[in-house]
Write a structure and sequence with these properties.
Blueprint (H helix, E strand, L loop, with lengths): L2 E2 L10 H9 L11 H14 L3 E5 L2 H12 L5 E5 L3 H4 L4 H6 L2 E5 L9 H7 L11 E7 L12 H13 L4 E5 L2 H8 L3 H5 L4 E5 L10 E5 L1 H13 L8 H10 L11 H16 L4 E2 L21 E6 L3 H9 L3 E2 L1 E3 L3 E5 L6 H17 L16
Parallel strand pairs: 1-11, 3-4, 3-5, 5-6, 6-7
Antiparallel strand pairs: 2-8, 7-8, 9-10, 10-13, 12-13
Helix pairs in contact: 1-11, 2-11, 3-10, 12-14, 13-14
The protein binds pyridoxal-5'-phosphate.
Length: about 375
């Protein structure tokens, strides 16, 4: 048996999703007549309290199209230095959108210094400067152990942006993890933002897809952007059907069950924290040195350092059927998700103890990283 904790992207669709995909009513979505895609877009817009939505192939495409629809060439956005948009999207903002990013340094809770934010907006009357056209937040925030940003904080950032006439976009790849962890309604967390992307293909367990929501006028622009980057899909209701199941209120919906993933992550962190050889991941992930602090695991990520050869530790786990990945700054990441049970977590903890016993200790945790963001 394999327990694959490399990412929540490894989830397979639920039986209800497979059934819905099999029976999905289809049309040509570029003509706008795939009823299943239309139903998914309506459901997403309604849940997040926005006028309209557009279904996209991936989170990366969602962020790219979101920027295309907000920004003109030569403009600049403001985003956290460690965000996905800045670090893991091949500078699509520069290559395709034609914009620069002013990077904010994050605090370990994922917030920014508000004075620095105010200073980060360019002076639109100075002909030398680019014009600030967008602020981007990531929620949950992967670089700070996937912590959620609160409604209040999101409102504060939106207010500062809107004072300058600048819209706010949320990269909510794991937006519903934030919603569940904070115990708020999706529309409440989305309300301060002008646009939000969320991924169906991560914790929500769909095989593919993301959704971008915003005003009707904005989403019409985003549809043009999606077509520009080759994202116009045809009988794509077969995929949207899984998303409709994920966002449904009944027992087949996969939003509420994210609480199980969060509880499993916390249990994993608690068990790891007791082991000699496991320690604080450091930096933004956990500023306090010493033992891993399980209270940092508030959604579905557990990130830690091993006082061992990291590759050998991961190999020793893998030989026991447990998969984790190396992560930046010499850390290891485990992500809980649909298909991983509380019992699996106990199996993982036993495997970690055994892997630590058989892996040679290293003087310092290995700072090198070969990870890929997933
Ligand atoms: C915060 C964040 N945004 C965007 C993405 C991109 O999603 P995708 O892999 O579907 O392109 C990811 C993927 O891991 C992510 O973690």
């Amino acid at each position: 048996m394999t327990v694959d904790l490399r990412s929540d992207t490894v989830t397979h669709p639920t039986p209800a999703m497979r059934e819905a995909m099999h029976h999905a009513e289809l049309g040509d979505d570029v003509f706008g007549d795939d009823p299943t895609v239309n139903a998914l877009e309506e459901r997403a817009a309604q849940l997040l309290g926005k006028e309209a939505a557009v279904f996209l192939a991936s989170g990366t495409m969602g962020n790219l199209v979101a920027q295309l629809a907000h920004l003109a060439r030569g403009q600049e956005s403001i985003a956290g230095a460690s965000t996905h948009v800045v670090t893991y999207e091949q500078a699509g903002h520069a290559v395709i959108v034609g914009t620069s990013v002013r990077q904010m340094r994050e605090n370990p809770d994922g917030t920014w210094d508000l004075e620095q934010l105010r200073e980060a907006f360019r002076d639109p009357t100075d002909v030398h400067e680019p014009i600030t056209g967008l602020v981007i937040l990531e929620n949950t925030y992967a670089a700070v152990m996937a912590r959620p940003l609160s409604v209040q904080y999101t409102r504060t950032i939106a207010a500062i942006a809107h004072e300058r006439g600048v819209p706010l976009h949320i990269d909510g790849a794991r937006f519903f993890n934030a919603v569940v962890a904070l115990g708020v309604a999706p529309a409440e967390l989305a309300a301060p933002a002008d646009s939000v992307t969320f991924c169906l293909s991560k914790g929500l367990a769909c095989p593919i897809g993301s959704v971008l929501v915003g005003s009707r006028e904005y989403i019409a622009k985003a549809r043009r952007g999606r077509k520009l980057v080759g994202g116009g899909m045809r009988q794509v209701g077969v995929l949207a059907a899984a998303g409709l199941v994920a966002l449904s209120d009944g027992p087949n919906g996969t939003v509420k069950r994210l609480a199980e993933d969060h509880a499993n992550a916390r249990r994993l962190a608690e068990g790891l924290a007791e082991m000699d050889g496991i320690e604080s991941p450091g930096g933004l992930l956990q500023p306090t040195p010493g033992r891993l602090d399980p209270s940092r695991a508030v959604t579905n990520f557990v990130i830690f350092k091993v006082r061992r050869d990291r590759a050998a530790f991961l190999d020793a786990l893998s030989s026991r059927g447990i998969l984790m990945v190396d992560y930046p700054h010499g850390t290891v990441r485990a992500v809980t998700h649909y298909g991983v049970t509380a019992q699996d977590i106990e199996t993982v903890l036993s495997a970690c103890s055994a892997a630590l016993r058989e892996t040679p200790a290293s003087a310092a945790a290995d700072p090198a990283t070969t990870h890929q963001e997933r």
